[in-house]
Amino acid sequence: MPDRSSPLLLILTVLSPALCCDWLTGYRDLRNRTVVLTRTTGGPVLDPGFFPHNLYKRVFSSEVQVQLWFIRENLQHIHDLQNRSRCSSTWNQQRRVELLQSLERQIQELGSCLKEPPVGTESRVLAKQLHRYYRKLRRQSLQPPVGSRQPGSDPGSDPGSDPGSAGCQLLRQVTLMHLNRMDYLRNHARHRAERPGPKH
């Protein structure tokens, strides 16, 4: 009797790992919920003029696994900033918890897609550039500008604790831009993962 399992095994071995990534093809409601939670925490959304467009352009032509890794790294940085930000302390607490949980869930799902994260030169360079970018964003959004404290003010106070402050609005606007660009990159990665041949 012929072995009918061989073709199936062959197909499974040549499938791109990205095709098995549930986050690429599903979780639309979760991604949309993250955007809604971020959008409804403040006023109108404006272009903050502070965004790593060059990094997204560079990753757009990278391998699918690098693109997924790049998205996960951004989500992790955003989660860390939102978690440390005092802006969230005056939001509806349920909304704050939901936002952090939605980010954590996406990070977890992307982690399952990256059983072997990229370790090449490109990912190392991108990691350094992302670290520098988010360090600068952290300074601008979470730390008060020099000379902003009033005499006699609480040393532990932070202008970022006001959800209407410039720092909070910057963090919110940049987060929304990242979420939108990451969704565009996700669609691009999904289409490339579905195409036969090398994922370059």
UniProtKB/TrEMBL annotation:
Superkingdom, taxonomy of origin: Eukaryota
Keywords: Antiviral defense, Cytokine, Disulfide bond, Secreted, Signal
Chief location of this protein within or outside the cell: secreted
A GO BP entry: defense response to virus
Signal peptide region: 1-20
Region entry Disordered, spans: 138-167
Skewed-composition ranges (Low complexity): 151-165
Listed name of the protein: Uncharacterized protein
